[in-house]
Amino acid sequence: MAVAPHSLASESAVAVLREGGNALEAMVSAAATIAVVYPHMNAIGGDAFWVMRGPHGVPGGIDASGPSAAAASIDHYRDQRGITDAIPFRGKDAALTVAGTVGGWAKALEVSRKIGGRLPLSRLLADTIWLAENGMPVSQSQASNTAAKYEELKDIPGFADTFLIDHKPPSQGTVFKQPRLAATFKRLVRAGLDDFYRGQIARDNAHDLQALGSPLTLADFQQFSARLVDPLHYAVKNAALRNMRPPSQGLVSLLILAIMNRVVAQHPHALDGPESAGFIHLQVEATKLAFRVRNQHLTDPGHMTVTPESLLAPEAIDALASEVDLARAAAWGRPTEPGDTVWMGVVDQHGIAVSFIQSIYHEFGSGIVLPTTGVNWQNRGCSFSLNPQQINCLAPGKRPFHTLNAGLAELADGSTMVYGSMGGDGQPQTQATLFSRVHWFGLNPQEAISQPRWLLGRTWGNASDSLKLESRFSDAVFAELTKKGHWVERIGAWDESVGHAGMIRRYANGVLEGGFDPRSNGGIAAF
């Protein structure tokens, strides 16, 4: 089974599974396809993280996040660029980190071969090349996002030539082609994925980035490799949770559920029901505490002063849980992180499971599309601070803090769940909602995703820091949350701003059950 926020990516994955491919091979195919069919959300000019359950239940992870350029420093931005407050979100100054996602695909295929993977790269990228070359219909999400960001991005180099049709944002259903990107994928098939970092594609990308004014150089590409890492883990009642370690905010997703689990152990009534004000209040309060820890500690692990494991220690969770007031909302109002992303899941016939997330950060990333390769470059580096006192301050060769994270859970009944969502700071919140609705309330994955959701703070396309609830919640829920002191905002009934979520659950007997997000253009594919 495969789930993705665009149905064509799910179909690419399942086609690979039908041919005997494993979950890692299927995910590489899905990741390549969705980079073409959902280009406003992700690209091969971005980063990715993998959380996996391998053969015999062995966990694993891949960190495919790229570092900042060796020439990128606070002094570089202050002295040479005249930028003192914050790195711009768009343009050459935002394109300052190596794109790691293709390196992550390469690392996944290395692992795949060790467990019997046999499909060639030409097969895994076949759908992608066809769709980029021959075209695919513009989704509603791409159409609306292109229109919304048109004024902001129309003058960024390469954006108009790539994403506009007849000099205007395309409408839904318009055929959209990306011939330069198709040629780049063909080159990867011929030369191998390493060409992106140490071959002709690397030289072309580095040359074009330098010509546009980015600090990235060929040497930055040549020094990059994705890394195999052990995911973080935390045990709640009847479940073992896994998520990506820093620079990902996977720790935040674990902290939210850890705090909730601790509070519920003492106050079982706190959860109440899957659409209740009590459940929402508890999770929102846990989210505030988890974000506080994140902002104090999370960045490139080589620059952290504490280990992520210490932040999940029992005494640390106890201290955080003790701050939760079930009757009253804690103060809030700090800016949170927007961001667009795609999360996808695959589980194969052997029970190998992949929870995967791929992103260019904001919609269309930096907005830059490189003229030779057609690659849209991420703006992940704009999340760095130019304040040297901040934990996530810019430094040469440093990986920025990532909102990206991918969830996986192993349950006491022998089942495995992969789940996640796009949406910046909404990602850990949605993960907690999905897990709780399935594990604690007994909903199936589709029910958990389709029921109305909420979001604390900002997300892509939404700049306010309120507690946003889809309008399908009852008036009583709005009233009770307001009474508890939350600044509540009513959003659309099926609002895209709460994210594009997905989930697959594999039971001990091999039965698969999944859910996709009706707020996306996604779908479940299975056989």
Structure overview:
With 527 residues, this protein is an alpha+beta fold. It folds into two domains: 2-227 and 340-383, no CATH class; 229-338 and 403-521, Serum Albumin, Chain A, Domain 1, CATH 1.10.246.130. It has helices at residues 7-18, 23-37, 74-80, 101-114, 121-124, 126-134, 140-153, 159-163, 179-191, 195-198, 200-212, 218-222, 250-266, 277-297, 308-311, 314-321, 426-439, 445-450, 475-483, and strands spanning 2-4, 47-53, 59-64, 136-137, 175-176, 227-229, 232-236, 239-243, 340-347, 353-361, 407-411, 416-421, 454-456, 467-470, 488-491, 501-506, 512-516, 523-525. The longest helix is centred in the middle third of the chain and has 21 residues, at 277-297.
Walk me through the topology.
Elements: E1 2-4, H1 7-18, H2 23-37, E2 47-53, E3 59-64, H3 74-80, H4 101-114, H5 121-124, H6 126-134, E4 136-137, H7 140-153, H8 159-163, E5 175-176, H9 179-191, H10 195-198, H11 200-212, H12 218-222, E6 227-229, E7 232-236, E8 239-243, H13 250-266, H14 277-297, H15 308-311, H16 314-321, E9 340-347, E10 353-361, E11 407-411, E12 416-421, H17 426-439, H18 445-450, E13 454-456, E14 467-470, H19 475-483, E15 488-491, E16 501-506, E17 512-516, E18 523-525
Parallel strand pairs: 14-15
Antiparallel strand pairs: 1-9, 1-18, 2-3, 2-10, 3-6, 4-5, 7-8, 8-11, 9-10, 11-12, 12-16, 13-14, 16-17
